[in-house]
Amino acid sequence: MADENTLEYNDFLFRVLNFIPPMVVTGIIGWPYYVYVFVNCKIILEDHAPGPAFGIMCLVVHHILIFLLLWSFAMSITVDPGRVPEWYAHLEMERQGMKAPDGGQRLIDQPEHQLLADDAQGGSVEKKLDNTGRWCRKCVKVKPDRCHHCRVCQRCVLKMDHHCPWINNCVGYYNYKFFYLFITYALLTLFWVSATSFLNFLRSVSSSDVFDIGAPSDSFLIVFCWLYCTLFGVALGGFVTFHTYLLVQNYTTIELVEKKQSPANKGKSYVHPWDRTPRQNVEEALGKIPILWMIPTRIGMSGNGVRFIASEEYKNTISTQ
């Protein structure tokens, strides 16, 4: 009994600690927001050059970026990245000649599941070394293409990219768009703050009270905020560039590390199964409606996370082997 209570306590403590990184991110967003809006923009609105109109524009654009940033952040946290559907697990087990645990009529014989079967069956590209289907020994369930087991979430995640502690969630099929927009809008917000507060930064650097740290002056806050946003933006820029490359090439982080950069593939010509055209790759991640690509919504997106279309180059490569 004591062991069970200890396990429950440790599990509760682990869940509580997992919420600390998202709270830290909220603070990282909130502090520069305060300095930019209530210190920097206040000075711009009261200044004759470049004038109040510029200050109003700064505030409007900044709040639009902050709104989209927080929307994307909330969606990346709350949206489930994707679980292996029970219908897929049953259909795939039946296709491989295994009996589903609940017995009864086979799903593959039921008319209402025939469309799902046509969409999912025979579409598995990734195989084990013995050419059999992929199987998760921890979940005791079949794994679709691009699916991986997360040891933190303790379950399989569809099209898993990585587990991100900063959102206390896995990044997978259903929330990758929101994660990508979150880091993109974070970068745009940082650069917007750096660009529009540059004049006040130059003035503040030469101010006599810039080093008054005891009771931080406006000059100190502006200088520190500008350096903070600029340096953080440069660092985040590399991360956004990396994920933009993954998006355009239709890789996940796991696929890039485990397959393209695998020692087993060094010196070999690796053909990524899911890399079609850049437009098709972007549409798979962000949706088929370009005007909604930068909006944190799944409107215009299709698919179920268990079936992906292989590239023609990969099909030709396999057919010639």
Beta content: under 5%
The sequence of SSEs as H and E is: HHHHHEEEEEEHHHHHH
**Annotation, overall tally of beta strands:** 6
Overall geometry: elongated
Query: In terms of structural class, how would the helical and strand content be classed?
Result: mainly alpha
Task: Quickly count the helices.
Answer: 11
- Cα distance spanning the termini: 58 Å
Instruction: Provide the residue-averaged pLDDT.
Output: 85
Helix content class = 40-55%
- Work out the radius of gyration: 25 Å
The largest sheet has its strands arranged as 1-2
Largest β-sheet summary: 2 strands, antiparallel
Task: Describe what this molecule looks like in 3D.
By secondary structure, this protein is mainly α. It has 2 domains: 2-82 and 166-319, no CATH class; 86-143, no CATH class. It is built from 11 helices and 6 strands. The strands form 3 sheets. A two-stranded antiparallel ribbon has the order 1-2. A two-stranded antiparallel sheet has the order 3-4. Helix 2 (20-46) packs antiparallel against helix 3 (52-78), helix 3 (52-78) packs antiparallel against helix 6 (176-196) and helix 7 runs antiparallel to helix 8. The longest helix is centred in the C-terminal third of the chain and has 32 residues, at 218-249. The chain is elongated, with a radius of gyration of 25 Å. The model is unreliable at 115-123 (pLDDT under 50).
